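User: Could you check the structure of this?
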Amino acid sequence: MERKQQFRTKSIGIRVSEDEWTLFDIVARSQGITVSEFLRQSGIHYAEMSAENKDFLDSIGQNSEAAQNTVHEFLTDLKEVIFQSLKHTHDDLSVQVKRVEKLIDVFLYAYLFHQPEVKEVLKENAMKSAIRRKEKVLSMIEDEVL
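Assistant: Sure, the predicted structure tokens are below.
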């Protein structure tokens, strides 16, 4: 109840379309809050961002060189964030590829070690059981990887 009393000083109302309300409701529910709380938090975040960027927004009309420098700094920072993200993704994928390569090596070693060459007279039976053996091996690999 204390939380509701905290916001009793001012109240505003806004009109939204059905689609907007549905969108707000979906996002609010996913965060476990009401639409009112979601809109309040969104408004606060927007106001804080506007206040932080006020100097930049003011400089656009007055000093285009300063604005260009600020945009350049933003883009440089963005480039660094994207680069770090790509590097992290690359590192993760490299680890996964190495695991798959190691798994293939182990599989081939096990296959060649445990499967002697099939004599000509037994090849027909080996071909018939190939699908069953393949499914068994894939199941075993899936159990090991997952």
